[in-house]
Amino acid sequence: MGAMALVSAGGAGVAFAQPAQPAQPTTTTAPATTTAPAATTKPAVKAAAGSFTAPVCEATAWTPLAGQLTLIGTRLESYNAGNVVPLYGNLPEDDITIQYPPICGVRMVDGKPVAEWMYCTDAEKGTCAGVATEGWTNPMTGEPVEPGTQLNDYGEPVGPTLPKKGNEKLSADQEKIISFLLLNGVEWPHTYPDNGGTSTWTNNSSQANRNALQDAVWCISDYGVGDAALCDKLIGKEKQKEILASMPDEKVVLELQRTDPTPGDELPVGDTAKFTLTTNLYDQELDLTLPPNATVTLCGGDAVITGDKIVVKGSGAAGTKVTLCVTSDTDGRVDLSVAGTGSPVQNIHWNQANSDVEHPGEPRRECQVFATFDTTSSKLKATAHAVFVDDEGTGSLGSTGSLGGLGSLGGLGSLGTGSALGSLGAGLGSAGLGSAALGSSDLGSNGEGSNGSGSNGGSTGSTGPSTPTKPTTPPSTTTPTTPAQPSTTTPSTPAQPSTTPQTTAPGNGGQQGERPHAIDGGEAGLGFNTQTGIGLALVLLVVGGAGAVLAVRRLRG
Fold this sequence. Notes:
Mean pLDDT: 72
Low-confidence stretches: 1-48, 393-557
Distance between the termini: 94 Å
Number of helices: 9
Strand order of the largest sheet: 3-4-5-21-20-8
């Protein structure tokens, strides 16, 4: 507000102290007589019909005066027009007609009142946040003033506080730093004996911390007017460079991606899901959100998690990566989100009353420019998820989609050349449908079991040796005839197998002779006898389900 003066108090003084208030009429009753001209004979101005009671700002530890919160007359008109209306300052002892910054202001957003603290960026100008009481007169003219009218620090009526694009006296870097202070703040250990006690941080959370934030803003906008030593100590040139380096000049980056498990989104309860957060929103609090049954911790990168907030350290427009680990006590989907505000500069409101009125030599009669962080601005948000499943692995049934790999059974035509069916077991094992030990017997050996215990097609169990014995290829002197291809006409009903089981010696296969050869990896007859086919079907049915049997039938048919 007015000119800043250093008040020394053993090193714990007020950096920017409130100046004395100009002489003005009493705020309780209008004077009985006045020396002002004919205006004193005018009747008192009555308050306009209608009123509105505004909410208080964050962390207001006292009850403001009714005249400050109740909007009537021109202040109510300004509020209804969408403008911010000053309500009260940060010193509850101040007279209603003059207020010390920061100032609590209210504005309408989507039809609802939003109260936010506003910070001054012109230390030598007035706040213009006073309110005229019943019977108030203009001290400069003696004219009566409508109750509820907004006043400057001299007690004169001022027009509404209107939006501005910025404070023209500030550089781009100064605006950036002020916007950072309003959004994030900095550490500020200092004592204000007459304004809330000891501050710890520059934010809105207490009277002392708000006073600290106002001082920090003035250190940027009006350095040298107040306590320069305090400014140098807590927000000097190096700190300002650090703040500027943390603010992206280009597009804001905020991305969240699950990196484990991947591919897929499922993992057992008790395991840890990992997410990579990439952002260039440095040194500011980002909101972490996840279900109450889940926990998030930092497991990589330069960042600090405190409660439901994370602050990422780094530099550069491309962003910095950190790794977040999430666990869950129960099964189900866990959604993790990280939210932050975009460019702070774009979320600062600038407002000023009587911006076109100047009083050379009397800056306190002029109204300063307020900077307000828009608490209603939409935040950027990045979301990713993981699905935790119980020990039964109920959710993991989705992995059976890999059964599509059974299409490779088309390669079984190569069995005609004597290749081991072990590849089938391995394939089925990789599909999660059973042990690859299924292929420990060489069914292509026409009954030569891997341990001599098989019958009619060899053993299909896992009892054979770890390395199957390569079957002996029968001598061949002639090229076998190519098996007859199926007729394009309706085939006759094939001969049915005998119901009398064939007797074979242990270890010997059924039908002997050369096996058909596959041509260019295509399909060929498998040469299975009836019992071998039935045995294989049973094994496939047990291990792979009906789909596996159907796949073989299609290959054979």
